[in-house]
From TrEMBL:
Family: Belongs to the SIS family. PHI subfamily.
Entry protein name: 6-phospho-3-hexuloisomerase
GO molecular function per UniProt: carbohydrate derivative binding; isomerase activity
Coiled coil, from the record: none
Gene3D superfamilies: Glucose-6-phosphate isomerase like protein, domain 1
SUPFAM superfamilies according to UniProt: SIS domain
Superkingdom of the source species: Bacteria
Amino acid sequence: MTTLKYATEIVKEVDRTIGQITEEDSERLVDRILEARKVFVAGAGRSGFMAKSFVMRLMHMGLDAYVVGETVTPSLQEDDILIIASGSGETKSLVSMAEKAKSIDATVAVVTISPESTIGRLSDVAIKIPAKPKAGADSDYKTIQPMGSLFEQTLLLYFDATILRIMSKKGLESGVMYGRHANLE
């Protein structure tokens, strides 16, 4: 198969996956983000990169948003939301964050393959991205891609779609957001 044929198949896989995400849970996540005083986002590995891109767009909208673990990230408080991106929902460091957030009575949300996971059970909102787990487990979800690529690609598009929904609810246009774009590049 050629590179472009692989790309075409990847797009088909992502399209099938996005089509299975629950709209009601997505709306609950959007509402919780808009209700929160501050938004904290965490993820490990490639999922973490997708999470960082989400925080950037939240900041462009004027929301008080942070990547967990950065030196300028403030403390999480009761009126805040922690959004975790984790395919397995079992990454130890992310489980610890979810447990800490729950102990503070902050809202916890997860975007995951496994809403029945430890982080999923701790979460107030769980978005299921139906994709093949990274390693080992059998799955009904087939992909030509290695490891967690389908989850990570869908995660990026899902987060971008979430941004569009928040923009719609806030009546924001891209031009306003561009005014908050980095200018020391």
